[in-house]
Amino acid sequence: MAVRRSLFLPVLAMLAACQPTYSFEPEQVASGPGGMVGNGEPLTPGNFPGGDDLLPAARDVPPPADSRPPDCGADCVAYCNGAGLQNPVNRGLCRSLWGVGLPHRPIQQAEACRRLFVDMVGRVPTADEAEATCSGGWGATVKKLMDGDEFILVQQRRTADRFLYSNEVTSLQAIYDMDRLVEKLYRGKVPYDLFAAVVSAHPVLTRRYADPGDKAEALFTHFLGRPPFEHERADMARLYKLWHSGYYDHPQLGMRLPDAFIRFRCLDDAGNVDESAKGECASVLWGYNELIFTPDLRAATDPSLRELTLWSGLLSPEEWSKLQTPGRVLARDLAFWERAVDDVLVQYLGYDLSARVPEVRQELVRWLLENDGDIRSVHYAVATSVAYLQSAEGASPSAYRWTYGPLKQVDAEVWIDSMARNTGYELPGCDHRISQPEDLLESGSIAAYRVLETSRWKIDDEGEVDERYSELARTLGGCPENVTGGRFRVVSILTTATQLSFVQSLCNPTLDPETKGAAVEKLLPEGMSPSRAVNAALAEEIATHQYRVLIGRSPDAAERAEAREAGTECARTLCSAEEFARPYCFVLLSSAERVFY
User: Fold this and answer.
1) CA triplet 529, 535, 538: central angle to 5 degrees?
2) Residue 419, class by beta-carbon neighbours within 10 Å (0-12 exposed, 13-18 middle, 19+ buried)?
3) Where are the domains of the chain?
4) Is the pTM of this model over 0.90?
């Protein structure tokens, strides 16, 4: 320990001169290149067109058979060109949908609003909330949801899954900085190509992968959607030769953090650029790009490497910019922008529409570039498109996937958060930035405790991390630790049993006095006494209330009739409103409608 601490004494001395330990606040955790960009005004006003296209009817021609792809001739092209569509997804779809005689599936307001809330807010709304939000047109609705803090949190959690945030592998400072960068991206302050450039040299990526070739492969996979060819991997790896995985003793947190360092490569014994070896630190496949740093007073000798290293926390903005060359190289490729829009399409639709209708990808890439790389424009376009805002309910689907709406499985956090919020059941949380919260608690540092205290994790009465939420979420594939694996989605006997057990404890259908469950007042209409005798009319009233609060919509005629029938049966045993409401809660919350959307 003494050897490692002495290694970074110069680093700590410089930090101490700049930032006194007594001034530390939890908000100061973030440190890295993300804080150096996106500090101005948004790239665009965010008022994107195309949110309320007047959708055309299918052209009056025989639709194509399911066994062959749609063939859009001259008349079809003319029909679509005259449709006046502003949304790029709708424009791209027209020649494979309306233009060839295929109709889309009519939208259902409640179904679409529920879908938007789950995808953009991260929870199921109540009917009152849905009716208040999803009015005034889909463009206004999506704009309203995108401007909220919950939308940012959903995107931050998705990015944590994508880059496998783990404070066991990567510095907590870097994770918080990356989270800050993602917020800037989805506030419209950072264009997508600049985001990729910063990420290409960000410790969240460079510290996770030890080998330079692995770093290059991760970059290609994240931003081009494919691994590099061998010559691409070898060439790009030269730009990652400088990176080294080490540890940094944080002076305020009192913790040893895994962090990224820079090694001084391709130099001679005097510390100058070695002309005969500098090719080993230069990429030549995409033009000549050289990455060589020379040491100065910030450098310290690492005994384990027997060479000088520089902690990434001491890099200047100019040096960070130079290290971001790999991301700028990839952003020159059309495939980079295609991957960006494909990711958004899969996020909202659950399937790869671009592979089936390439015109959609072409339109979206053009749209994204016209909007200065503001990724929000693509989210807006997809979330207001006919591909997304159409019903998944109805007859058996055709071979043309884009003729009916998406149907996906909710994430564990969405399922749990919706259950708890809609029933008023209090639960702790899970913070995507801190996958191992016990590390902060065990440090014994007041500063580390304060960081944990201000996170989404909760501390119980015994001073331990409250893991009720994370234990449930991890069984269902959420709240991942991200050390070796990440999130998963599965429907199995184990997950179903776990879900039913949670719903059982939440609704308490057996009225077990030792089970706290949700407050009965949440399960009954306002002002209704739990001891009131049930009849058919009262049962329908309770069911309507629960459908609106727990499912996010009003019941249809068949569902109301079922509730009246159940109320009649309940009345024969002289059951009370609570005795009817709690089992009914169990039925609704254990339904497939709570798992799929």
Assistant:
1) 50
2) buried
3) 2-30+191-331, 412-475, 500-594
4) yes
Strands 307-311 and 255-263: antiparallel
- Phi and psi (nearest 5°) for 532? -65, 140
| Contact criterion met (CB below 8 Å) for 336 and 61 | no
Say if CB 207 and CB 177 are below 8 A apart.
no
Residue 449's contacts (CB-CB under 8 Å, 6 or more residues apart) are: 440, 441
Instruction: Tell me the per-residue pLDDT of 179-213, one tens digit each, with 9 for 90 and over.
Output: 999 999 999 999 999 999 999 999 999 999 999 99
Q: How far is CA 293 from CA 175, 305, 310, 481, in A?
A: 25, 17, 10, 35
Beta strand residue intervals within 191-319, DSSP E:
243-250, 255-263, 282-283, 289-290, 300-302, 307-311
- Bridge partners (DSSP) of residue 250 are 255
Asked if 428 and 468 touch (Cβ cutoff 8 Å), the reply is yes
What are the b/e assignments for 475-506, b being 16+ CB within 10 Å?
Answer: bbbbbbbbeeebbeeeeeeebeebbeebbbeb
In single-letter form, the type of residue at position 223 comes to F
pLDDT in tens, 415-444: 999 999 999 998 999 999 999 999 999 998
Q: How far apart are CA 364 and CA 531, in angstroms?
A: 57
Give the three-class secondary structure for 348: helix
Q: Tell me if residue 218 falls in helix, strand or coil.
A: helix
Query: Could you tell me which of 340, 363, 378 has the C-alpha nearest to residue 85?
Result: 363
Residue 336 tokens read as 């980079």
Q: Find, among 183, 191, 228, the residue nearest to 337 by Cα.
A: 191
Q: CA–CA separation, 37 vs 34, rounded Å?
A: 6
Rounded distance between C-alpha atoms, residue 167 and residue 364, angstroms: 36
